[in-house]
Amino acid sequence: MKILIIGDTHNHPMGVKKALKMTMPVDMIIHTGDGWKDAEDIPEGVELVRVTGNCDRSIKGESEKIITLEGVRILITHGHKYNVKYDLNRLYYKALEAKANIVIYGHSHKRVSEKVGDILFINPGSAWRPRDCEPPGFVLMKLEDGKTVFRFLDLAEPEC
Question: What is the pTM of this model?
Answer without folding.
Answer: 0.97
